[in-house]
């Protein structure tokens, strides 16, 4: 009986060992990183056969003395537990494999290569400004009088050429003033000539008197009188020039090629000296003050500091576009302003348009 127990125990242990080998074989085949193994014959029938032999032997012969036979289900339960563990491990391994593949694919990055070469480019900045004339003039009357004539071209919006007579003021009084100044001048010329001759005569008389040395007073030789006559002549000459200038001011002229913006006189009106008669804009050159921020200035060529001053011309080409009509003009940046606006914190670049 004891020998039978030993045999049954050994058979059970052998069954467990075979079950373990079978389970490990299956697990190795299902693992993604496992190496392939040689095929083996199925051991499940052998396990079943081994498990059935003790049961048959126990049924054929019962032990004496009422002893209970050794239960063989121990091998079956061990095999079942191992099979369940093998199935669970196989399922878990199968479920983890796709996740690992997705994680590996997610770590792959798309990489591209671009060949670059050094090249030069023209900096472009955009700014806004208002077109203004280079010269804006409020034309005022230099003399008083009544307007006696107005030129047909002296109208608002008209273009007038340089030195064009726009209006005339009555010059009667100024003609008389010029004539009077000329008479005074001629009298001063005569007086000066008389004093010069009297001075020559005085020197001759002093020489013939036989007196030694110089006379005690300069009045004897009429030198002070000669200087006074010369001063009178100079004053008379200035009066003539002043009268001529006032007479010329009776003709109101355009000081440059101009656009008439406004006219403040009419035919027959009386104007006072210093009163405004018209507003004129220069027609030859227009300017645009373009405000640029510090970051925009940094994109432009700096060069020498003297190039950015008002003493030198920058000559940067720019294209100006009318925001209303879309018309464009070609202009040049000629200078930059050093001062910065208190409100916008910008500095102006001055663009010049010729013949706008």
Structure description:
The structure is a single chain. This protein has 356 residues and is of the alpha+beta class. It has 4 domains: 2-96; 136-165 and 252-277, no CATH class; 171-249; 284-354, no CATH class. It has helices at 2-30, 44-60, 73-106, 172-208, 223-249, 294-299; strands at 131-133, 136-140, 145-150, 159-160, 165-169, 251-253, 258-263, 270-271, 276-282, 285-292, 316-321, 328-336, 347-354. Strands 1-10-13-12-11 form a 5-stranded antiparallel sheet. It has a 4-stranded antiparallel sheet with strand order 2-9-7-4, with no helix packed on it. Strands 6-5-3-8 form a 4-stranded antiparallel sheet. Strand 11 and strand 12 (328-336) form a beta hairpin. Helix 1 (2-30) runs antiparallel to helix 2, helix 1 packs parallel to helix 3 (73-106) and helix 4 packs antiparallel against helix 5 (223-249). The longest helix is centred in the middle third of the chain and has 37 residues, at 172-208.
- Helix tally equals 6
Q: Please identify the structural class as seen in this structure.
A: alpha+beta
Strand order of the largest sheet: 1-10-13-12-11
Q: How large is the radius of gyration? A: 61 Å
Can you give the mean pLDDT?
A: 77
Helical percent range? 40-55%
Pick out the low-confidence regions: 31-100
Order of helices and strands, N to C? HHHEEEEEHHEEEEEHEEE
General shape: elongated
Number of strand elements = 13
As for the number of domains, it is 4
Oligomer: single chain
Biggest sheet overview: 5 strands, antiparallel
Strand content: 15-25%
Terminal residue distance: 131 Å
